[in-house]
Amino acid sequence: MESEVFFSLGIDELFKNDNPTQAIYLFSKFIEKYPNSFYAYYYRGLAYAENRNYYKAFLDFCKAITINPLEPSLYYARLLAYSKFISSISNIHNIIHNNTHNKILTK
User: Fold this and answer.
1) CA pair distance 23, 35, nearest whole angstrom
2) What is the CATH number of the domain that holds 59?
3) 9 contacts 30 by C-beta, under 8 angstroms
């Protein structure tokens, strides 16, 4: 399969078929051939975000910015991924804290 096809199939999987896991695979294959495509990192970042892997989304948006620092939408996407990542960590912390607190109270 031609490498260029991976990109268009990735777009289809992400937006038409609602299959971000397959989209991540396809964009990754495209990136192997075209590691300087900021679009590939951007769309793979969107797919990671759809899978709620905000850390990997953040990393892909950062990589896209290093390739094309003049694209403003990349900074916005990175900010959203970072915000969701921090929020998810905070939620995990609260769950752990509440469970620990409840165990102490029941002893």
Assistant:
1) 16
2) 1.25.40.10
3) no
* Domain extent at residue 65: 3-106
Q: Are 78 and 61 in contact (CB under 8 A)?
A: yes
Give DSSP secondary structure letters for 54-67.
HHHHHHHHHHHHHH
Residue-wise pLDDT tens digits, 15-72 = 999 999 999 999 999 999 999 999 999 999 999 999 999 999 999 999 999 999 999 9
Model confidence pLDDT, tens digit, residues 62-104: 999 999 999 999 999 999 999 999 988 765 655 565 665 455 5
- What global pTM score does this model have? 0.81
User: How many domains does one find in the chain?
Assistant: 1
Residue 19 CB-density burial (10 A; 0-12 exposed, 13-18 middle, 19+ buried): middle
Note whether 26 and 7 are within 8 A (CB): yes
Looking at residue 95, its pLDDT comes to 58
